Write a sequence for this structure.
């Protein structure tokens, strides 16, 4: 049996499956997310998280990955702002659950026919936030040269989220 509470000094390990409280840890709007002085806000690339470990052809993204990430960020004291492409609901394993999270305001949807990356990067710059994503944002580098520096990479192993805690603990301004 693995110890779900052990923490690697740099990468951390979160996601004890006993935490299933979906009613906290999400920002319902970006404005609400920036209101709390004691909670740290962070953006999450919802599609990138959903498709982690699901990159084979015809694979569906995982709603459970999104839940695991939210739990991990809550455990670390973050209030998360998940932003997704409008098309994500058609590409996940449980579209009805994703739609419910969107209706509840737990996942914000980018406008139709646009990519969420633009909104992630623009909002991150506006509010000086980090972005949980494995995307390097190479295609947006000309417009957002600071995108890569804002990125906090992660892994999901056996349902547990592992975040780069060193990057996460550094202020965004020190990485720019």
């Amino acid at each position: 049996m693995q110890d779900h509470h052990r923490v690697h000094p740099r990468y951390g390990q979160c996601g004890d499956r006993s935490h299933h409280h979906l009613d906290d840890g999400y920002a319902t709007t970006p404005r609400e997310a920036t209101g709390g002085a004691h909670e740290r806000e962070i953006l999450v690339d919802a599609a990138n998280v959903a498709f982690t470990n699901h990159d084979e052809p015809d694979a569906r993204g995982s709603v459970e990955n999104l839940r695991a990430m939210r739990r991990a960020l809550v455990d670390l004291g973050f209030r998360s702002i998940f932003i997704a492409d409008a098309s994500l609901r058609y590409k996940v394993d449980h579209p009805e659950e994703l739609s419910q999270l969107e209706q509840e305001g737990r996942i914000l949807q980018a406008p139709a026919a646009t990519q969420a990356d633009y909104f992630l990067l623009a909002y991150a710059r506006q509010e000086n936030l980090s972005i949980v994503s494995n995307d390097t944002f190479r295609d947006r580098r000309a417009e957002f040269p600071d995108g890569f520096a804002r990125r906090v990479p992660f892994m999901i192993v056996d349902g547990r989220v592992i975040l780069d805690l060193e990057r996460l603990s550094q202020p965004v301004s020190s990485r720019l």
